[in-house]
TrEMBL record:
InterPro entries: DUF8199, HYC_CC_PP. Pfam families: DUF8199 (PF26622). This is Secreted protein. It comes from the Bacteria.
């Protein structure tokens, strides 16, 4: 799952160089190497300007990752905020026990048993 999130958020660029219709080089992190047949235009005078058509071409493919993964709590409507707050509150209390002392009879000692009234009256719960 982490790999899927990483790949969906990473942006990268693929540079490719073609000489005519032939694929020469491709690069993921830098510029692709050329075939060395680049036309260098050197104009010696402004009157004589000769330009040749270059047979080489560069192609650049840009893959942009997803930028909006984090949803802001402020963009939720009131019902959604209430649900998230209640969910977090109940989820946190799942793991912690309440430390209240429910033993309210701690200081109370029962009276001594003189006779067993249930046996004397023969009253038994079934």
């Amino acid at each position: 799952m982490a790999l899927l999130v990483l790949l969906s958020t990473v942006s990268f660029t693929v540079d490719s160089h073609y000489c005519g219709d032939i694929f020469v080089d491709s690069s993921l992190f830098g510029h692709a190497q050329t075939c060395g047949m680049d036309v260098q235009q050197q104009s010696q005078s402004s009157e004589c300007d000769i330009s040749k058509k270059d047979c080489c071409s560069d192609e650049q493919v840009i893959v942009e990752g997803q930028d909006t993964l984090k949803t802001s709590f402020d963009k939720l409507d009131k019902d959604q905020q209430l649900f998230v707050a209640a969910f977090i509150h109940t989820y946190i209390h799942l793991f912690f026990e309440s430390q209240e002392d429910l033993n309210s009879y701690r200081d109370y000692t029962p009276p001594p048993l003189v006779r067993d009234i249930q046996v004397l009256d023969q009253t038994f719960l079934i």
